[in-house]
Amino acid sequence: MPRPTPFGCSLLLALVVAAPPRPAAAQAPAQDEAVIGILARLLALADARQFDGAVLRQALQSDNQNVRVQATLAAGRIGDPEAVALLVPLLNDSAGAVQGAAAFALGLLKDPRAVDPLLAVVRSAAPAAQGVRESEAVTALAKIGGAEGAQAIRLLLESAPLGQAVPPAVSTALLEAWRLGPRAPVPQLLAYAENSDDVVRGRALFSLGRLRSVAAVPVLLKALGDQSSEVRAVAARGLSAALADSSPIGRAAVAARLRPLANDPTPGVRINALRALASFRRDSTLAPAAISALADAASAVVVQAETTLGVLGGSAAIEALGRLATSPTYALRRQAIVGLAQADSLAGVAAAQTAIAADADWRWRSVAAEAYAAAADRARLEGLLADPDGRVVAQAVQGLMHLAADSDMALIARARVLLDHADPAVRSLAADILARRPAVEDVDRLVAAYRRAATDPFDDARLSAVDALAAIAASSSAAKLTVIDRFVGATPRPEDYLVRRLAQQRLPEAAEAWAGGPGHEAVGPIATGKSDADYREIVRRYLLPALTGQPNPEVSIETDRGILTLELLPAQAPVTVAAFLALVDRRYFDGQRWHRVVPNFVAQTGDPRGDGWGGPGTTLRDEINPQRYLPGTIGMALSGPDTGGSQFFITESSQPHLDGTYTVFGRVSGDLRVLTLLTQGDRIRSIHR
After folding, report:
1. How many Å apart are CA 462 and CA 468, to the nearest integer?
2. Whole-angstrom Cα distance, residue 415 to residue 206?
3. Over 60: is that where the pLDDT of 2 sits?
4. Pairing relation of β-strands 562-568 and 648-651?
5. Cys-Cys link to 637, which of 112, 252, 404, 647 (CB 3.0-4.6 A)?
6. Spatial distance between the Cα atoms of 629 and 656, rounded to a whole number of angstroms
7. What pLDDT, on the 0 to 100 scale, is given for residue 6?
8. Which pLDDT tens digit goes with each residue over 143-178?
9. CA distances from 341 to 55, 217, 288, 519 (A)
10. Once rounded to an integer, what is the mean pLDDT over residues 571-582?
């Protein structure tokens, strides 16, 4: 669409101000086939990323409030800017849920035309009356960003008199201001960083920390002594050696203030402080603080202490890590070995070899690859390229990529051979290596790799081959002609929309050919593999019951550490919930491991390979929704937009920077204690309804 004129923005603002209130919605019968049909159609459109103005307009005008909410979410997820004009009037809908959903959807579209209407609805509400609509409108303004969004956020932060209760919309602006990047109103954030309200100052400090603002160093340091553990955790999270080096305060003073927090009463504060200390690389004087944390009762704190000791180094760190390199707990032993390799390459390599000799489990050879990379032991990494397990080879290749320069011809020669490897992750990495030094001679190899990947259980090798071919095409005019001739001209339009999307971004000649010519749709609509009957079944089984007040489905995860009970949220992510429960019913997750656990951040599982590369062989589109990443929130893991599958994560603490990026489809109900006990390598005994 052409860039809107100021008149266009004024027209949208007028739609908000002038739109008449909608009559109260009539409750649709639970089994109303008309409602099921329109909800199913909305799911199908959003899943295919297909904009149908007539269907959306009809749904947005429905008397059924639930239909209007789902239509607004669909319009935002589809991502077509034509939806802006449809959504703006709903900021004035008679139902608050619709108002909030409309504001959220406008944030997904990120169209500057929505700034004035969004700001207008926030300013029109008295502080005591501000609710979901105003909060989502503020978040949308920050997501839209640019000069217009930044100006709106600044005006909101300046609107509340200091010393008085902070309105909800202003509190949300504090939390979301980091999204503005260099345009963020740092002086206004600083003014709230010492507010008497714990939530307010925590949100201001969060944004200041995310912005890496040098001006924020004094208030972040002061907040390390805050009465609120959540504020202390946020402050520690925002500090680093790089930030200290840019500040007149200096790294010594910052490190001195962080060190005592390694013994803070709250585990999350201890972890964040240790993580901040890890940024002071090779400063062994800080090691005693991390060494004392090795005796912590919380395994997550110990893992972070090991990580910190590895980068700080020094004889005391080496001795302490050496003691834990024989721990019976996988997570503790793994991190001790990797940390030891960072601090003392010979000791780390020896510890890794001891682990391999004692246990034939492929995971220890993968840990050895991590250790060899940390120790810069290229010879041993190359030796692992012959390992019979592709997961070990993939880890070794990643280590070599970390050590070698882009122009390293020995590694490039290895990559050419590895393009024929049986493991798709290895082939993906091999293509990535060739993309770092594009050469026309590799075109035929990469085309063959692309074709071979058609039957892979995941599409990383195909995507990497396309990316490498695009790098070659960009290297010279002659190379582009070769790629067009041998790949574009000889390759039919792929069914995989991720391949088409990558081609549109990196290899427009392929995208144009696959679209049937200039001006045609290169990426969408997406072939989802689902029929109308499939979407109707999702609505009947999951979405409609949730919308009509029936209990949400629950599943139990039996782990080595205890049982986690999850409440799923089909009203927010119906297709994702349906796919997840289908895997649960197949016992797909039983016996898998938590392959990634980052202390005080996330615990991740759902990979049948156990190394982070695997999935179910199908791909889910994102169902981004307004749910926030609070402690215990369940999100779909991604390698990029619309790449969901079976891997999911659970947040161990609030993670506002994940909001609106990863699909939230559930939350832990009840006690989070078991979640905090999980460590990498722990097993899932079963997941069941």
Report:
1. 10
2. 42
3. no
4. unpaired
5. 647
6. 6
7. 33
8. 999 999 999 999 999 998 877 899 999 999 999 999
9. 59, 33, 19, 54
10. 98
DSSP code of 24? P
Provide the pLDDT for residue 29: 54
Q: Which of 453, 481, 477 is nearest to 466 (CA)?
A: 453
pLDDT of residue 602: 98
Give the pLDDT confidence score for residue 522 in this predicted structure. Answer: 64
Closest CA relative to residue 86, chosen from 70, 100, 106, 66:
106
Inform me whether the pLDDT recorded for 22 exceeds 60: no
If DSSP codes are grouped into helix, strand and coil, which group holds residue 566? strand
The mean pLDDT value for 121-137 works out to: 96
* Token pair in block for residue 392: 């070990």
Distance CA 213, CA 188 (A): 13
Which of 184-198 are b and which e, b meaning 16 or more Cβ less than 10 Å from the residue's Cβ? Answer: bbbebbbebbebeee
Q: Which of 166, 173, 172 is nearest to 194 (CA)?
A: 166
C-alpha atoms less than 13 angstroms from C-alpha of 152 in its C-beta half-sphere: 32
List CB contacts of 268: < 8 A, sequence separation 6 or more.
Answer: 229, 233, 600, 652, 653
H or E segment and range at residue 336: helix 330-343
Q: What does the alpha-carbon distance between residue 239 and residue 276 come to, in Å, rounded to a whole number?
A: 6
Return d(Cα 564, Cα 668) in angstroms, integer: 7
The number of CA neighbours under 13 Å toward the Cβ of 274 is 32
What's the mean pLDDT when you consider all of the chain? Answer: 94
Report pLDDT digits (tens) over 423-441. Answer: 999 999 999 999 999 999 9
Task: Please spell the DSSP secondary structure of 383-435, one letter per residue.
Answer: HGGG-SSHHHHHHHHHHHHHHS-TT-HHHHHHHHHHTT-S-HHHHHHHHHHHH
Q: Rounded to 5, what percent of the chain is helix, strand, coil?
A: 60, 5, 35
Selection from 232, 236, 314 nearest residue 275 by Cα? 236
Which residue's structure tokens are 């600083």?
190
Percent of the residues in the chain that have a pLDDT greater than 90, as a whole number: 92
Retrieve residue 628's tokens.
């926030």
Measure the CA–CA gap between 504 and 498, rounded to whole angstroms. Answer: 10
pLDDT at 31 over 60: no
DSSP state of 182: G
Tokens describing residue 313: 């180094």
Rounded Cα distance between 585 and 491, Å, is: 38
pTM of the model: 0.94
Query: Strand 602-605 relative to strand 633-636: parallel, antiparallel, unpaired?
Result: unpaired
User: What is residue 21's predicted lDDT score, i.e. its pLDDT?
Assistant: 44
Calpha distance 91→137 (Å, rounded): 9
Q: Among 441, 417, 415, which residue's Cα sits nearest to residue 429? A: 415
Peptide bond into 112 cis (omega under 30): no
Tell me the DSSP string of 516-559: TSTTS-SS-S---S--HHHHHHHIIIIIHHHHTTPPPPEEEEEE
Over residues 208-241, the pLDDT tens digits come to 999 999 999 999 999 999 999 999 999 999 999 9
